[in-house]
User: Fold this.
Amino acid sequence: MTSKPRLRVAVDIGGTFTDSVLMSGDATVLATNKTLTTHESPAAGAMTGVKMACDQAGIALSDVSGFVHGTTLATNALIERRGARVAGITTEGFRDILEIAYERRYSQYDINIDKPDLIVPRSRCFTVPERVSVKGDVLIPLDESAINSLVASLQAEKVDAIAICFLHAYVNPKHEQRLRELLLDRMPDLSVSISSEVSPEAREFDRLCTTIANAYIAPLMSKYLAEFGTAFQAEGLTCPVLMMTAGGGMTTLETARRFPIRLVESGPAGGAILAAHVARQCGEGSVLSFDMGGTTAKLCLIDNYQPQTSRQFEVSRAARFIKGSGMPVRIPVVDMIEIGAGGGSIAAVDRLGRLTVGPESAGSEPGPAAFGRGGTYPTVTDSDVALGYIEPARFAEGRLHVDVDAANAVLAEHLGAVLGLDATGSAQGVSDIVDESMASAARMHAVESGKDLGIRTMIAFGGNGPLHATRVARRSGVSRILIPNNPGVGSAVGFLFAPVSFEVVRSFYTLLKTMDVAAINTMFDSLIDEAASVVRAGAPAAPLTYERTAFMRYHGQGHEIEIALPDRALEDGDLTTMQDAFEVNYKRQFARAVPGMDIEILNWSVRVSTKKPNIDTTPERPEKVAAVAVGVRRIICDVSGKVLDAAVFWRPDLTPGTTLAGPALIAEAQTTTLVSADFSATVDAAGNLVLTHMDAEGTQP
Assistant:
């Protein structure tokens, strides 16, 4: 008797669309769909999408044994400042941590500089007498007699949430824990976040900002996640709901409610996981992941099948693309650059007469004018419709009516009338600007990372990624593009390839040459226990993997390099190996090591994950066969600007080995791939579309 394959569901709630995917086994997609995001009740739109997927596959929600969810709600709450009223509590004498910040301006000579909004003004920053040394010794006990006065101040400020960040609490958290206990005794409805749990690392400003951000969104996310889980349970779901995290793993609802800051950028992380999975499957060692949705575009560098990661990112920058102009958050995160360039990004003419696109978005309500839902401003999607790249009858599986005349009207009214262009000329301008913005972001991200885009394969997905891939690739110097299966819901598919995982970072300063190996091993044991308990809650019986990392630097430097450690207890002989690994990595980044300098270690981390399943690599190339078009559509060529006839293909009809030349449109359920006139396309053995740039003579370079 054969057992039924495991059925799993993924839901990705974005700013414009909610994507739902139903998968059988490890990789067989049974059903997908995109529904408009319902912002007043995001769970309602998710329920609609999941029910549609189950109906398409002929199953009940109770048959589902795995459920993964990612959402932009946490990100949007931080960006739009829709969180709780937060107060910060620090060690006496350190009230102005937020005001002092890094003691520098992000734009040195800008006299009208806008400081980052750090959520908590000085009037809601409070202090308590206590002090712990850098080694964790109590220098001044927590003054519990000061609590009554503190509570009165908090009540006067009518705060909903508290962020506690005491000096060196990452070494000794007892004062933070005790203060939380005392506050909850007197104010039981408070949401309290403590830095020793949210971000137990050195650097007080970053740690305080992260704790504040967590406290700010905790009430909103706790309520949302509880309602989300309850709603699906009421409809018959019996398995636990797991949440996608910014670091590319999954965690439980309970952990997500405690640390909602780890959900920020969870949707884009799913896209990077998908791109890494496809890269491994196809043997692509150097990849640029390009995820363009309805609100934003995300780009991530992937090397050796691993997305680039970071320990810090910034929320809500006051100046776009300028480092230091946002609120720093220190959590494990997939490193990517995100810009306000999506299908719903609004185009306008500024006061200097320049055409601009984004970052404001029409979202799903009212959406682009072409959707006929009340949108009155031109968007990127309206320009794509006007240029002929979207076939109305096949768009969104025919569930959304596309009004070409409405798209042309808003382009002509808001842009053409000001710039002296017709609707088509306005649409071309919008397309050029948004594509150059995304290509510029890709080039900048690569330069900052010391990477070369020219050798990379772009993996494009998202509702608008395949439609803009060739245009962005051409400007980025990328000559090869891969469009995976089900690209329109790519991030949601990526959720189902992510491991259940949790990472814990802890500061423990030591010089390498005098390191107490036994003390480090004891600390690692506690980190492993902490991380494994979270993972086991979501995957009780799965085999686990353990990744240990040391963050090392030369004595006196301000930033560290991540060095992988062996998956076992450290031994005295490992010190030499650690030094060699550090110097190799340092030399890779800065051209040479520094002889004679002491090496120090500030932070340590452990990531506990479920084991990833084996991936079948793509077999040899299938025999080529010419594609058969299902129609012809007039488009404005993105290369020449002329009106051309583009062949239209239905992707489900294209079998491995099928080849075609641009200009062409390859339509499928949730998106369309534009094969530009200077690109050709073929279907590989795994069903991926592979687009290759051709030179002026029409041959592949």
